[in-house]
Write a structure and sequence with these properties.
The complex is a heterodimer of chains A (179) and B (732).
Chain A: E1 4-9, H1 18-27, E2 36-45, E3 48-57, H2 65-68, E4 75-77, E5 84-86, H3 96-100, E6 107-108, E7 114-115, H4 121-124, H5 131-135, E8 141-145, H6 152-159, E9 162-163, E10 175-178
Chain B: H1 3-15, H2 19-22, E1 38-40, E2 43-49, E3 58-64, E4 67-73, H3 86-89, H4 92-96, E5 105-107, E6 116-118, H5 121-139, E7 144-148, H6 154-163, E8 168-169, H7 171-188, E9 205-209, H8 219-230, E10 234-238, E11 251-253, H9 260-273, H10 279-285, E12 286-287, H11 289-296, H12 301-308, H13 312-324, E13 329-331, H14 343-357, H15 406-415, E14 423-427, H16 431-434, H17 438-445, E15 450-455, E16 467-470, E17 490-492, H18 507-517, H19 529-539, H20 544-550, E18 552-554, E19 577-578, H21 582-586, E20 606-611, H22 625-630, E21 635-639, H23 640-645, E22 653-658, E23 667-672, E24 679-683, H24 703-706, E25 711-712, E26 719-720, E27 725-729
Parallel strand pairs in B: 7-8, 7-14, 9-10, 9-13, 10-11, 12-19, 14-15, 15-16, 20-24, 21-23
Antiparallel strand pairs in B: 1-2, 2-3, 3-4, 5-6, 5-16, 17-18, 20-27, 22-23, 22-27, 25-26
The chains are: A alpha+beta (179), B alpha/beta (732).
The structure holds iron/sulfur cluster (3 copies).
Chain lengths: 179, 732
């Protein structure tokens, strides 16, 4: 049973937002909403600046406050890859999960249900990569099975330095940022 | 017409070389246009190539249940490698844009008032043909000038050549990469070209001087840059702004704007004085090296420090860093090079620095590109030209070779000299944002008897036209074949994936129909573009049916470096790399580049710099609903300390006033540590003023509006635009 995750090389990302646009067209994300977004963090005083650019989305955490708070069971863990999903038909749009997610990854879709990144499970189950990974012109995003020690993502995590977002939130996120 | 100008004209010809769920669409799929599509769950996948910028990446358009769903890169295409840039990915928004032009329009009030009557295509063509014929009778065919940007203009160019006009231009020369091409041609006898022949992927050291790759999304270049970063290339970035590329760099040089030439000269002096250059390469291929070395050796890093503000030790260290990786050291030539007025000479200095590295023609430097040769359509020959092009009278700018000077045509339209220009045909270029000094453009177009604009949206320049012709967007039309010069030879096709939502038409159809009205039907012997394309492809041993399947046909592989079989060839007067340029000396210019001090902003003023954002192209994509969703206005970057001094915070709206008193539309402040205190920066293309394009109207500010001053490059007529100074107007 795989455990899907993403490894993102911040040394290569240029913050171009192609991943955001590809997600929007692939998944028909409505105007004004995004399932993924770019964070640019810079520190220091000109001209001595350090900067990290990251593409962020739902972390498909191993410990999921958004699933445990859901009163209807719409927010759940998929039986493949540990991907966190929302069943739109069951969701009542109560916003509990939107509040619970420490990464601000969820929003209420204009059609009334909670929505967020699905790791493009519809593509992954067809053997394709997520749309954002597939489009990235800097090839900085990697997707795969974190439990397979020979996967590209596992090898990258063994060979490079990395960090996760909000490591102290107790969520055990599955998106890793190479530095 | 003498033979010289005929040659010039021929050379010019040769040089031309969201989202679905929420947007209603009336588009139907064209099943016939895509007979060979992959059919999977009602899905059609149609290969074509992109038009969100001029790079022409190969794409796959996905049409689901008759509606355009998404576009992806075509994995067979060497430019995109299956990955489009953010604009290309958002290209479906061009089809769904509700503010598109829908039918032909004829002006009913004064020029620029944007009051129109909707007319039929026939009425529009009658109107244009009548004016053009009268113009021809009174002034001659050369009174009609064409401004055209992009491959979509090919058929309109053909029409105007058939009509008999030699005046054909694009802002991509005198307002963009012209100085670079001239500087490199003077040195190596050849241009950098587009796509640039930069071997970024294999470079071990990359020097970017003001080039903001990653913000500037030339797709292949960004992909290669990322591969180079991954492989650990040493990156040196020179920029007054801490760009995205700067964040990937080993060395960041926070240069004072306007002093790049001083840095280039100091780098060359270190390399020459320490004898660190590629001596073999220079002795084989160089000419005039001794004179060059004697001249540049005077520019010490200590001297350059006073001009540039860059620590002399850092200048030495970065010079040695470049040398360490030679010849795989690429000093990137940039693209938009019209900065200060000595731009062709600065580009020549960049060329010379590359020559010292021995990187021209070498792996990791500049490869030797080639195109897949597809014969031209066998048209009847164009009528004999009665007059020469008038963009550059008496060769005032002696090295403006290859392409015409757009602002020269504008000037002639104002003065009527050397002969009158009475008509402008404008294809796919918003001259209001592309040319400096908007007043001069408006003054020129008041002298016209006819102004026709072909565009997909009611752009600002369309607002000034007499006749506006609405074009199909690229996903709805065929265009000419693309055989860009590149690492490998290939030919790509643009073909429709969906139909036009309204009465828009493809440019080839407009050219043919108008041609027939003008009595030039003999120049349009083909029935339609499919026949035209098929004939061209058959001349190369292929067919339209064949190329429609995968969108791309590749040519045979050829070597691209001197070291693996390309015979070096330098089309300069000496037949060698010209370290010392006798032709420049003869024309009264510096044979070896020299430093010119450029004026600095007065107290309380800041140099206005501009650049690109990854999600927009020029001023042509701002109304695309998908791209606008991610960036609908620009910001003015102001150094954080400076902003504090003026009491401005990020998000405040201010206006900018330039040295001539021109005041911008309101723009949001971005207070940041990522820029020097003597300049401010904004992304180009915003602050648009077309009242018909509501979604862009006065969104952000226009740098072009503030560019009232420009310096003209004496070598080639380029208009340098980084010479304007602005101050802050707090009250909005
Ligand atoms: S597409 Fe790639 S390079 Fe661009 S912002 Fe997204 S992750 Fe970064
Ligand atoms: S994995 Fe799919 S759904 Fe998630 S951000 Fe990427 S494109 Fe969007
Ligand atoms: S670089 Fe981007 S906009 Fe330009 S052709 Fe390629 S995908 Fe299209």
């Amino acid at each position: 049973m795989p455990r899907y995750g993403m490894v993102i090389d911040t040394r290569k990302c240029v913050g171009c937002q192609d991943c955001v646009i590809a997600c929007k067209t692939e998944n028909n994300v409505p105007v004004g909403y995004n399932r993924d977004w770019i964070v640019t963090e810079s520190h220091g005083k000109y001209p001595n600046i350090q900067m990290e650019i990251r593409t962020e989305r739902c972390n498909h955490c191993s410990e999921t406050p958004c699933v445990s708070c859901c009163p209807t069971g719409a927010s759940h863990i998929h039986d493949v890859g540990g991907v966190v999903l929302i069943t739109h038909e069951v969701c009542i749009g109560c916003k509990a999960c939107v509040q619970a997610c420490p990464y601000d990854a969820r929003f209420i879709h204009p059609d009334g249900y909670a929505d967020k990144c699905t790791f493009c499970i519809h593509r992954v189950e067809e053997g394709l990569k997520p749309a954002c990974v597939e489009v990235c012109p800097t090839y900085c995003m990697y997707f795969g099975d974190l439990d397979d020690p020979n996967s590209e993502v596992s090898i990258l995590l063994q060979s490079r330095k990395w960090h996760v977002n909000l490591p102290d939130a107790g969520t055990q996120p599955n998106i890793f940022y190479l530095t | 017409m003498n033979s010289l100008s005929r040659r010039k004209f021929l050379k010019i010809s040769g040089a031309t070389i969201a989202t679905a769920a929420v947007l209603a669409s009336s588009a139907k799929s064209i099943v016939n246009a895509a007979e060979n599509v992959t059919k999977k769950n009602g899905l059609q996948i149609i290969p074509s190539y992109c038009d969100l910028c001029f790079w022409k990446c190969g794409l796959l358009a996905y049409v689901k249940d008759g509606k355009l769903w998404k576009v992806e890169g075509n994995p067979k295409d060497p430019l995109s490698n299956g990955r489009l840039c953010p604009r290309g990915t958002g290209g479906v928004g061009a089809h769904y844009d509700t503010e598109r032009l829908k039918s032909p329009l004829i002006r009913k009030n004064l020029r620029g008032e944007e009051k129109w009557v909707e007319v039929t295509w026939n009425e529009a063509f009658d109107y244009i043909a009548d004016k053009m014929n009268k113009m021809k009778a009174t002034y001659g065919p050369e009174a009609m000038a064409l401004f055209s940007h992009g491959i979509g203009g090919n058929f309109i160019k053909h029409l105007l050549r058939a009509f008999g006009s030699p005046n054909e231009t694009a802002p991509s020369f005198a307002q963009c990469r012209g100085p670079r091409e001239v500087g490199f041609e003077l040195t190596f006898g050849d241009v950098v070209g587009s796509p640039e022949r930069t071997d970024i992927e294999n470079a071990k050291c990359i020097v970017l001087i003001g080039s903001h790759l990653g913000e500037n999304m030339h797709n292949t270049q960004v992909q290669e840059f990322s591969h180079a970063v991954e492989k650990g290339a040493s990156i040196i970035v020179v920029d007054p702004r801490f760009s995205v590329a700067a964040s990937k760099a080993k060395y960041y040089l926070p240069i004072k704007p306007g002093t790049d030439m001083a840095l280039l000269l100091a780098w060359m002096s270190v390399i020459v004085n320490e004898k660190l250059y590629d001596a073999d390469y220079i002795s084989k291929y160089g000419n005039g090296f001794e004179q060059f070395a004697a001249e540049v050796s005077q520019y010490t890093p200590e001297w350059a420090y006073i001009e540039t503000g860059i620590d002399p030790e850092l200048i030495r260290e970065t010079a040695r860093e470049m040398v360490r990786y030679k010849p795989a050291t690429l000093i990137h030539p940039g693209r938009h090079a019209t900065w200060y007025g000595d731009d062709a000479q600065r580009s020549r200095a960049i060329a010379l620095l590359n020559a010292l590295m021995g990187s021209w023609g070498r792996k990791g430097g500049f490869y030797v590109p080639y195109s897949y040769s597809i014969p031209k359509y066998p048209y009847p020959s164009y009528p004999e030209l009665m007059k020469e092009p008038l963009d550059n009278p008496n060769g005032k700018y002696p090295f403006a070779t290859g392409e015409q000077i757009s602002t020269g045509i504008r000037e002639a339209t104002i003065t009527g000299q050397p002969y009158p220009i009475k008509g402008w045909f404008i294809y796919g270029t918003n001259l209001m944002q592309a040319l400096p000094n908007r007043d001069e453009t408006i003054k020129a177009l008041q002298n016209l008897d006819l102004m026709v604009v072909v565009d997909v949206i009611p752009s600002e320049i369309a607002g000034w036209a007499d006749v506006v012709l609405p074009e199909s967007v690229y996903l709805e039309r065929y265009d000419d074949l693309n055989a860009s010069p590149f690492r490998e030879g290939f030919v790509g096709i643009r073909q429709p994936a969906v139909e036009e939502p309204n009465d828009q038409k493809p440019n080839w159809w407009m050219a043919k129909k108008l041609g027939e009205k003008l009595g030039l039907g003999a120049y349009f012997p083909w029935k339609d573009i499919e026949e035209y394309l098929d004939i061209r492809l058959k001349l190369a041993g292929h067919s339209l049916t064949e190329i429609k399947k995968e969108g791309i046909i590749k040519g045979p592989k050829k070597p691209i470096y001197y070291d693996n079989g390309v015979e070096p060839e330098f089309l300069t007067p000496s037949g060698k790399i010209e370290f010392y340029s006798t032709q420049l000396a003869k024309a009264g210019f510096d044979p070896v580049p020299r430093y010119t001090k450029h004026p600095e902003p007065p107290v309380g003023y800041f140099r206005l710099l501009y650049g690109r954002a990854p999600v927009h192209t020029f001023s042509k994509t701002q109304s695309n609903p998908i791209l606008a969703d991610l960036m609908s206005e620009n910001e003015i970057w102001v150094n954080a300390d400076l902003a504090e001094k003026y009491g401005m915070k990020t998000g405040d709206r201010i206006k900018l006033k330039n040295q001539d008193g021109v005041i911008s539309d309101p723009i949001k402040v971005r207070a940041t540590e990522r820029i020097r205190q003597d300049c401010v920066y904004m992304v180009h293309g915003f602050g648009q003023k077309s009242r018909q394009l509501r979604s862009t109207y006065k969104k952000g500010a226009s740098d072009a509006e503030l560019v009232t001053k420009y310096n003209t490059d004496p070598l080639m007529g380029g208009t340098a635009m980084n010479v304007n100074f602005v101050t802050f107007e707090m009250e909005v």
